[in-house]
């Protein structure tokens, strides 16, 4: 079974538990903090994967390091350590965050522009494009790309909205080429 499927199952279980105990937002906050710890500290990952460190030592580090977290999150982490599934923690967090975003009607999107967009511009883009993809809002990540020449290109999941100058030029070129072949 693939690691991603296993990570999704743990995320589903945490999501259901959070729903039952009305702790969905608390779990999300804690998992976002854990994701930052994982990203910023490579030593914890290598420690958890080290074969000479016993499972009990790893579980103790998890308990001590995340003592301010909810019991459910800490127990999930200890369970993952016990089952030698430390490498799926990041994927599990990503699946949980995705489930929370779906529940809130939020989607992640990349917006490509020639320059950095202001918060007001990002907000307008979110308000304009969120309904088009069936969401209430978009978490926009602005990527500066001078090759688009002007305008924007927005990617939400596998949907692309291309209002860039370079995209328009490509469409015009395709039209010209296709009319010349006739």
From TrEMBL:
Keywords attached to this entry: ATP synthesis, Cell membrane, CF(1), Hydrogen ion transport, Ion transport, Membrane, Transport
Membrane topology of the entry: Peripheral membrane protein
Pfam families in alphabetical order: OSCP
GO CC terms, sorted: plasma membrane; proton-transporting ATP synthase complex
Localization (cell): Cell membrane; Membrane
Major site of localization recorded for this protein: membrane
PROSITE patterns cross-referenced by the UniProt entry: ATPASE_DELTA
GO terms for MF: proton-transporting ATP synthase activity, rotational mechanism
Biological role stated in the UniProt entry: F(1)F(0) ATP synthase produces ATP from ADP in the presence of a proton or sodium gradient. F-type ATPases consist of two structural domains, F(1) containing the extramembraneous catalytic core and F(0) containing the membrane proton channel, linked together by a central stalk and a peripheral stalk. During catalysis, ATP synthesis in the catalytic domain of F(1) is coupled via a rotary mechanism of the central stalk subunits to proton translocation. This protein is part of the stalk that links CF(0) to CF(1). It either transmits conformational changes from CF(0) to CF(1) or is implicated in proton conduction.
NCBIfam families: ATP_synt_delta, PRK05758.2-4
Family: Belongs to the ATPase delta chain family.
Protein name: ATP synthase subunit delta
């Amino acid at each position: 079974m693939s690691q991603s499927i296993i990570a999704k199952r743990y995320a589903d279980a945490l999501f259901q538990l959070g729903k039952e105990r009305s702790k969905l937002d608390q779990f999300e906050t804690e998992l976002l903090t854990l994701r930052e710890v994982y990203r910023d500290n490579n030593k914890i990952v290598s420690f958890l994967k080290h074969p000479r460190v016993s499972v009990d030592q790893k579980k103790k580090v998890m308990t001590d390091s995340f003592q301010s977290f909810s019991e459910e999150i800490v127990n999930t982490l200890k369970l993952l350590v016990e089952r030698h599934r430390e490498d799926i923690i990041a994927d599990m967090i990503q699946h949980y965050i995705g489930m929370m975003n779906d529940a809130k009607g939020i989607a992640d999107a990349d917006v490509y522009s020639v320059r950095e967009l202001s918060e007001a511009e990002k907000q307008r883009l979110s308000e304009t494009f969120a309904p088009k993809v069936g969401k209430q809002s978009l978490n926009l990540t602005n990527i500066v790309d001078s090759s688009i020449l002007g305008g924007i290109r927005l990617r939400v999941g596998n949907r692309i909205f291309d209002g860039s100058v370079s995209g328009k030029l490509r469409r015009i070129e395709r039209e010209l080429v296709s009319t010349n072949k006739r």
